[in-house]
Amino acid sequence: MRNRVLVLFSGHNDRAVIALCRYFSQCDIPFVIVASGREDLIFKTDWSDRVVICRVDRKLDIGLFKSIRLASNISSPDELIICQTSEYLNQYLLGSSSELSFIGINSFMPDVDGYMKLTNKESSRRIIDSILGLSFPEVMDFKKINTPCVFKPKKNIIDGVVLYPRICFSESEAKDVCQSINKEDWFVETYVNGQSYYLCGYLSRSGFFKSYWQTNLMQQPDGKSIVFAKIGKNPGVNVNKLFQNIYEEGYFGPFMMEVIKGESNNLYFVEINPRFWGPLQLCVDFYPEVLKLFLEDLGFDEVPNLNVNREINYDGGLYSWYFGSRGENIKKYPELMELPLDEIEELLKKNDVYFKSDTIELHGLY
């Protein structure tokens, strides 16, 4: 049997990286970590001894991966497998797969076309429109923009720069964005208010999938990180049809899709992220079979079944990032009102992704 070792890049998408560290540790799966620098939060966790390299900058090149390979030889792996935790990393892996394979590094990603069709905002909208009967926010002409609205890049990375959607609630904000972007690289949609849901899962190379739903409760402003969420129910998406069709489009791997239930209970498509998502701790705690499928797809044998308690109530099935919830202008979704309002602060603290012995130094501070 080949000796495979997983590689995690920390310093970006930190909470997903922490969840993967926990799951790999619980399953006794060998892994190493590439830290973003000496100040990386990973050094305040129980996995600091897994760090094999500290990066000096954010640049990715074959030299870095040769160094990772060399440093990881302490465990004599036959093959290193890079985990898909950021868009910037993923697109480098896709463009360098041959070079990396030559030195014994793999990522088990789909081909470039299969990935790009899902990750890019404009093309993913077309793909989902052809598969599911979802509603879509109206695309506006740049000369006739009404607020609130969302500016979305057609592609996630342009000229080496990662671009993110920009939400505007006033005409002045929209005008400022218009003046700061190349309009040929962007499109603008109406802003849809309502209840947000994530479909989270893993689609294997053979077309088999495991998934679950996450109901979002609180989010940082401007569409940034989810800071409070719970295990949820399907709001009305044909999941089997979705995964079957994206598999036929050439995709496999981790998958997260956001939909919003708006007025008249219409379900609106928001976006797809074909990589591991921030609130991944919910998966570890309640649906570890999703990550088990991921490991089995990479060729790991005898991945253990972790015991889970799926009794979901107001005090269970929750995820939070407590420090992230402390900021201003936190968006509160309708389903938050189903929780006892006088206990939300305590629920945020006790369900903090960092409120565990392996990351206790980070609790409430990061």
CATH class of the largest domain: Alpha Beta
* Assigned CATH superfamily of the largest domain: ATP-grasp fold, B domain
CATH architecture descriptor text of the largest domain: 2-Layer Sandwich
Radius of gyration: 20 Å
Number of strands: 18
Report the sheet with the most strands, covering strand number, pairing sense and barrel closure.
7 strands, antiparallel
CATH topology of the largest domain: D-amino Acid Aminotransferase, Chain A, domain 1
| Secondary-structure class | alpha+beta
Q: How many structurally independent domains? A: 3
- H and E order: EHEEHEHHEHHEEEEEHEEEEHEEHHEEH
Q: What portion of the residues fall into strands of 2 or more residues?
A: 15-25%
Provide mean pLDDT, rounded: 94
Number of helices: 11
Shape type: globular
Distance between the termini: 40 Å
What share of residues is helical? 25-40%
Unreliable residue stretches:
none
InterPro entries: ATP_grasp_subdomain_1
GO molecular function: ATP binding; catalytic activity
Protein name: ATP-grasp domain-containing protein
